[in-house]
Structure formats: structure tokens, C-alpha cells
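Following up on my earlier message about arginine. Here are the inputs again, as you asked, copied directly from the submission form:
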Amino acid sequence: MKLVHVILLLLCFYSSVCKFTSTSDTPQEDLLDRKCLTEKYTHLSCNKVFCQPWQKCVDRTCTCKLPYQCPKNGTTVCSTNGKSYPTYCQQKSFECLRPQAKFLNNGTCTAEGQFSVSLKYGKTDSEGIVEVKLVDQDKKVFICKNTWSMTQANVACLDLGFQQGALDTEGSFLTSEDITTNDTECLNVHCRGLETSLAECTFTKAMTNGYQELASVVCYTQNADSPTNGLFQCVNGKYIPEKRACNGINDCGDQSDELCCKGCQGESFLCKSGVCIPQQYKCNGEVDCITKDDEIGCEAAGHLRTQAIAFVPQEKMEILTADMDAERKRIKSFLPKLSCGVKDNTHVRRKRVVGGKSAHLKEFPWQIAIKDDDKITCGGIYIGGCWILTAAHCVRVSKIHRYQIWIALLNWFKPNSELKIQSVNRIIIHENYSGTTYQNDIALIEVKKRPNQRECVLPHSIPACVPWSPYLFQPGDTCIVSGWGREKDNEKVYSLKWGEVKLIGNCSKFYGKRYYEKEMQCAGTKDGSIDACKGDSGGPLVCTDVNNVTYVWGIVSWGENCGKPEFPGVYTRVATYFDWISNHVGRSLISQYNV
Ligand code: ARG
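Thanks, got it. Here's what our run produced:
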């Protein structure tokens, strides 16, 4: 072996050791959220991540779209089944349904070209130095080591049929003396990490002369490791060193090592949703965190907006294959977008709820009131179409003819000119609602379409978004409750009042067994000065995300007294009921993403 090789190897070895020691200070115990791990989240869990553009989120899982559900725009791609598809999305959705047919190349299929990956100089079939044959070339070429990481190694192993990806990005065979100098011409490859074939990654030729180290890999085989201390078990069954969890790198291959994090180490960014993403995804122009926090504050100093995330071709490089990651992003821009939770114009908020302030019409365009006979008995939340969300304890199917839905109401003593009244067509009460425990205190009201209306829209109203993931907001976040409910002293209220409350975690300490964490959400203030009260039921607890999009996070449900600090307000946790709601109103009405 040439001396240069030895030096390079040593350098690399030392630098990775250095990286190691600088990050291993944080005990892993603190980074991983053990309770979350029991949910077994992967790259297909749409509670934690966005689905691919060729997938849709059904029952909290990314499932394959049918090819016709893809956007029509795009470039032709060729699949290993020899067929051309009009778009990358269509090919990927077809592949998603039939995994044998993988991506081959951008453009139409040509008679000759095939792509292949092979491993050389390994002691077994599952390891070696990586060699590829690109579609339009007839010679096999090695991959250079400098851009090689677990991200590409996982894709290479998956391509070779190792379902669990790679064990390691290098092996002892690296020092093989069989590699002659002229074999060391190599290609760089860049993947995002969720590709199913190395052919989907971008290959470039480094225009450098001199020695290049070659990439090698050890693919993961079932008996590669047995569970011992210090190992993290991925959802796909693979074991990785625990110190590699929560570092932004998808070591598992199914991303399960990055989805339940309380902190991130190394070059990675922690989404509010508890997901670690590579640092280079921060401010890259694509939203990666479901909480969108990777794309805020990007104009501020220190964050240069780099465009292509995956890969910015440098000057001295020759691109050999198309950048399918850029194409994936482009497809995303063609996906339909649902509009909800965005107010007409941002009004300066002026003034209850207990201890609240009076509202202005445009501030609560999703707020509605339910009138039973001559009284406003409950609130409700407009979520789009003809649909209003409220509490189950607010309505009875038998009283359907008595209810009126008051829209755009501010003061019911002196109704404003915008006020519109609609009657109720249908009431759907959650089948597991319990009037004794208040579990599943949620109901849907469908208002009657006006005779001259083709589609249902509520005048002066804007729907609040329905949260599809329980990770969109966290304890400590400030949200807003609104309604026509009573004051603390049981004083009557005529005008719509609102107040800011904080989401409260582990509320069982206040309510013991009466509180059901998955279905309920507590919110309040330290001193209890702001709270919902009698008459606010069924109304909204809304939270606004970093992009100013408003979600109905809770439905006013119950509470011991009103405005007592030791008894915060309890709300129905709407995110838990996303599937229930969407099954009744239709997925397209409330799905913001992954439709
Ligand atoms: N159940 C009440 C109603 O029908 C709502 C009570 C909310 N109470 C509270 N302290 N947050 O209006």
C-alpha cells in the first residue's frame, strides 16, 4: 500500500474519533424519548414525518398513492421493468406498489442500459469495496470515500437486497493490496437516504487527480449483532450503536433512530416534533419538520439559504446522473394545498372566557355558536365544507331541529350585521362518548346547505386546520380559548371573549384517574386567571404554528370549577381524532399534506 493511503486512512480514523469524543459527552439516555420509542415510528409514520409525494397519509401511515394520484407535471423516467413513466412520482408510486420495479434513469428507457452495484474484495458477499455501473456507461467504477456515509451505504445495501441496509461504512478489507493505482478512479455519490436504489442518487465525477480513497461497506445481515448494552434496536430489527441515535443521520435505514429525540448531537437540528434532521436541511427551502421550525428565522444572520439540499454541484464536478432529489422537491410543489387556519388580515387583538378580552370578528373566523331555543349553549369550530366540530356533551341527535348555528356572531345581545343563521342537517356524536367520564367528548355538526348554494361555505368564516399529528404542539405552548361562556362569578357574557392559555403536560397530577392523556389536553395559566367556563363548551382551543397557521388543538370539554389554578381546563385532544373526523367529513377536506 502506498504511504499516502496510510496517511489518509489514519487522518480519517483520527478525525472520526475526534468527532466521537466531542459528542459522546451527552449521555444517550437524555437524548432518547423512551415512551415515544414504544410507538415504533419509522419514515412511514406521518405523525412524525411528511410522506413522500408518491405517498398519502392514511391512518397515520404513509401508504402508496396510485400512479394517477400523482401531479401530472414532471419529466419521463425509466424503470428497471423496462417501462417509461411520464413522471418520477408515477414510477415511484408504481414501485411503492410493486417493489421489484425500481428507478433506472431519468429520461426514456433505452435498449442497452442497466445499472448495477457490486461489492469487491470482501471476505463475504455482504461486504466489499463498492463498484457501480451507470446506465449509460459500460465500465464499472468505484465510489470515492470522501462523500460516502451511512446514508449512501444504506441505499447501496438495500439495492443489493439487504433489507436492513448497512452495518458499517467501512471494513477491514479496505487495506487490500489488490487495488491497483489505476483502479482508483472513482465517482462521488449523494443520496437523501430513503432511495430504494443507488441509481436514484446523484453521481458526480470529481475532477481531481491524485489518490482517492474508495468507499466500502459492510451490509447488515441478521446475525451481524446480538442485542447487548449500548445498542439501539431499530424498528426494522437492525441494531446500531446507541451513540449513533439522534444525530440526524438515518443509520437505521427506516429513520427510527431519529424520530424520538429530546435533543440532537453532532451536525443535526432538533424539530419541535422530536425529530433530528441533518443540519444542512435547516433553512434549505424545504420544510422537513412537521412543525416547520427548520425553515424559520432563515433570513436572520448566520443562516444562508442554500438551495438544493441534497446536493449543490461544485464547479470542478461533472454531473453524471440527474438530480432526482431536486425532481422530488419539484413534484412536491405541484401537490394540492389545503387552505385553512390563515386569517384574512391580522388584526391587532384587543380584548373573556374567564378573565379574557373581547374579540373582533376577523380574529376568530372559525368560531361559531350553537343556539338551543333562546340561549347560546355552546361554541363550535368551523373546519371546512359544511362541517363544524363541537363537544359531544353539547348536542343531542334528538334535538337536531331545535339547534341553530350562528355564524360570524360577536355579541348575541346586540347581533352584528354579519351574523348568519343556519340550521343543522346532521349530528354525528362519537360512538364512544361517555357522559360520565367525558371521554371522546367530540361531535360533528353538518349544517344545511342554503338552497342556492352549490358547495357549502360558511359566510365570513375561515376553517381552522385539523391537526393530524399529536406532535404539532407541546406542553408549554401558548394557545387561545374563546367563547361566550360565563365569567368566574357566573356572570353572564354577551360578547365573544378570548384568552391565552398554556398547554399543560401530565395533567393527572391535577385530576388523577379522571384524566385520559391520549384523549384529553389540559390548558390554563399559572394563577388560573384565564379559563373556559360554563357555556364555552364545544368551542375552540386554537394554537398557531411558526408560520401563523391556526389549528384547532382542543375542544372545550370540562373542568372542576372555572379559573382555579389547581384545576386547569380540560379539552378534547383533537389530533387524536383526526382519523375519526376525516372518516366522516372526507380526507380531502381536512388533509393539509400527504393527500
Ligand atoms: N362543561 C362546560 C360547558 O358545558 C365547560 C367547562 C369548562 N370548564 C373549565 N373550567 N374550563 O360549557
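One observation from looking it over: The chain has nine helices and 30 strands. Hope that helps, and feel free to reply on this thread.
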